[in-house]
């Protein structure tokens, strides 16, 4: 009896060595395996993200899910719903490659299941299964440290994408039933923010850090010494913009110095940061234009005027070696945080927390601060309101005041 196919998936083909000499003949590489079909991706073991993109493209080209209207949930595969989400919705998001990677991860668990199988029990089993796996970006063989495991919060974020895919499928009229995706409880909000001293230490660490080079010859051959190239100056600029604009990492990394299709930009003449990508519709992550502080605007204008051979900003506000940096700055940022002597709880999003906290500590108007940060007044007040000097002031005055006769 033949076994059921596991479907298209990634497989890491091991390296091949010559039996006699032991020399490397073929390097290890990711393959796409689909039954008897094998497709070479050309991606090395550390390039799993690129291999996953090729897998997503392969699946999209090979398989077209049924778009028959008004079907019962028991006849609709979850993987079909996810595939439609990749085709219809993912290209319109800010980071389509990340959505595709999440959908592929979901498909690994829900393979062969129908929408009728999406219950509270199976959702909880998914969370339990994911929390036993390391993040795919973990490299314990390279770092020598235990891999970082997926958390319940990470699994919740993936299930939110599953819920969005199912809702899109139902709204298009393909399913006659309403399916609920049961999510784990939200993690408590993080209250980590940087003091002025911590922020200054982090910026100076990034600005002064030099790349190390190895002396190739002479009596000091093999010794590592600081070079003339600075390693993290682009991160120093990223941190400054994050602290003084309160913008998300994606908006900062994609900001251009002039109007560009598909990018946000900074109007250097008027001093306004248009965070939403030009030509893109507004999303749930509200990104209203923000008027930049004069101190930050002076920095950015100086960066834009610098046109030497070693300039950092040519077309975008934040660049690394002549190119706009990736949206995902977590790895380099984590190294800089460690070098500055700060804890692993300091992430790029902490810069946004810090901006909101500093606003509240200095008594900013709630309405103005919420509009500047791109969040509702309710979220600002509930998360950061306790930092405001007037927080609960009327209650304090009332409880200490003498009762009138």
TrEMBL record:
- Keywords recorded for this protein, A-Z: DNA integration, DNA recombination
Q: List each copy of the Tyr recombinase domain by range.
A: 189-397
- Database matches in PROSITE patterns: TYR_RECOMBINASE
Q: Which domain of life is it from?
A: Bacteria
| Signal peptide (from-to) | none
Pfam families to which the protein is assigned, alphabetical? Phage_integrase
For this protein, the record's InterPro entries field holds: DNA_brk_join_enz, Integrase-like_cat_sf, Integrase_catalytic, Tyrosine_recombinase_XerCD
Q: Where is this region: Disordered?
A: 386-405
Q: What is this protein called?
A: Site-specific integrase
Q: Which organism is it from?
A: Devosia salina
